[in-house]
Write a structure and sequence with these properties.
Blueprint lengths: L1 H15 L2 H9 L7 H10 L3 H13 L5 H13 L3 H9 L8 H10 L3 H10 L3 H10 L4 H8 L4 H18 L1 H13 L7 H21 L5 H13 L24 H11 L8 H20 L12 H22 L13 H5 L2 H6 L7 H10 L21 H9 L27
Helix pairs in contact: 1-2, 2-4, 3-4, 4-5, 5-7, 6-8, 7-8, 8-9, 9-11, 10-11, 11-12, 12-15, 13-14, 15-16, 16-17, 16-20
Amino acid sequence: MVRGLQRSYGDYLYQKGAFDEAVAEYIKTIGTIEPSYVIRRFLDAHQLPNLTQYLEAIHVQGVANKDHTTLLLKCYARMRQDAKLRAFVHGDKEMQFDVPTAIHVLRECNCVEEAKELALRNRLHISYVDILLNDTKEFEAAVRYLYRLSFTDADAIVQADGRLLLENAGDSVTELIISLCMGFTPVVDASDAEEATSSLRANVRRNIDGKTAMDSSQMAAAAPALLATLGERVLEPVFGNPSSYIYLFASRQDLLLRFLAKVVSREKECDASTWNTLLEMLLRREKESVGDGVGVLSTQKGDSGEQKGDSVNQKGESSTQKNTNSTPNNTNSSPSLSHEATDLTVMKVLEDPQARYDKEEALVLVQTYNHTDGVVNPGRRHRPSANRDMSAVNHAEETSTRPEETTAWQPSREPSDKPRNGLRI
């Protein structure tokens, strides 16, 4: 009964044009009449200050929805009330609102710093990194932030924005992706844990006051920092699948070789796709070195594989430089290959007993790139003799009656002088 009288009195004041007094009466009716009734009245009258006052009141009382938050922030921006906007973001007023909606509206209103701060404080990782990449262009800061996230969150962001990161922070994000594959644990300090705890506590209080269910993503976002307070061993290292990141390096193949050369040395085995890609990258690099005048296919000494590796090392940086310079907008324009990448050769991969490449695909690759040291006569498992010239190798290939028996080079595990299939090795 009393609320009905307050509404009628508010309508009376509104009709008289006493908008300040009318909104004060309407605020007393919050919870009994639909907010849309009051909002529509002040929108029609173009009374933004009074509308803002009413919207603030319903946020304080915890009955605002996403549309109310959007409207309030747009009113702040329209009236250029920067102080109120900052107070809203910083939480100076006890307002209950939908944070993702607020971040979206703030970005639309070009209030990027406020949106970034709101996303960071509420640990909305995807929104925060998206602002760093697309609004403020802080690529290195984005990479540093990813180290603080759980593997699941960091992996999801790298999969979504990895190409953009590689174009603008190539070296840094390559090291990040390597760490995701080598056994990743979040880097969390005491301040992160304290911030996560206070943020989670504030979200719980907000949901209790607003009588709403807590979003599970809020708990998941704070989980790594909270677990870190229990001890370092609570979070076990997670090993990502290297082959799931290969496509990100489509425009940065110099960094791809560096990535692959590192991850194949990890304790956990890499799949065949990773090894096959590494083998193809090395074959391509050696073929490019031949184009620069460094012979790889001819065999001069018994240790020709090692000599070819040295030849590749001498020219590897030049091909890396060419690939890097062709990449636009790259802040790391001349990254150097790691020692793993420069020391690695095709023959080292083929002779590595730990390598898990697909033998049939490896054969196709070495034949495609005309790498004769990787292809041998069907009845032999050792490399061609040191004094065999190229014509002899070609003759052996031509006399093979069953091409499908030709295999990629495999080193002999146990040398033997015993006859094998009627042939003496």
